[in-house]
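Researcher: Structure prediction, please.
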Amino acid sequence: MDRDGWDKRYAAEARVFATAPNPIVEASLADLAPGRALDLAAGEGRHALWLARRGWHVTAVDFSPVGIEKGRAEAARPKLAIDWVVADAYEYAFPVGSLDLVLIAHFHPRPRDRERLFAAAAEALVPGGHLLVLGRHVDDIGRDGGRGPRNPDLRYRPDELAAALPAPLQLIRCEAVRRSVGDGSGGSVELTDVVAFARRPSG
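Model: Predicted structure follows.
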């Protein structure tokens, strides 16, 4: 979906996505000491808001000004430490060597841009910083209720995602994870995500 499409979707509902963090994001990051974080393709900012409430200083980047403004409004009430940036993820200039965490959750980069984007994310990390990438598994197309991109080239397999991460990063885990979500009618849908969690070496 392009920028206009996301703007219209965000404007049509009070909240498109849940306010709580994705459970995989929460489980992966809950034990990290707060620092400086980047939430790339942040949407309405649910992960940026969650991180900021835990003491992180977050930069939330998304190309939808409507999504960014919704997150900014929610962050203003408790005055959370979040910098809201309207920018295309493909064009965003990552800060070099200054972040403790880069989160890329359910943004599925084009295959030709994956290695470049992940390399820029890795270069943005301080020694000991972490990169978390989370996205939809290609095998779920057609059975996940339309959640995630329909183009299989934009989805992940664990081995392909691991191969796209730059060599300096130490891979902590890269695997498929199953979870249940509500289907809006009282039932549930089983989803398969792919999660990669990596760390920039300290030395």
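Model: The first helix runs from residue 3 to 12.
Researcher: Thanks, that helps.
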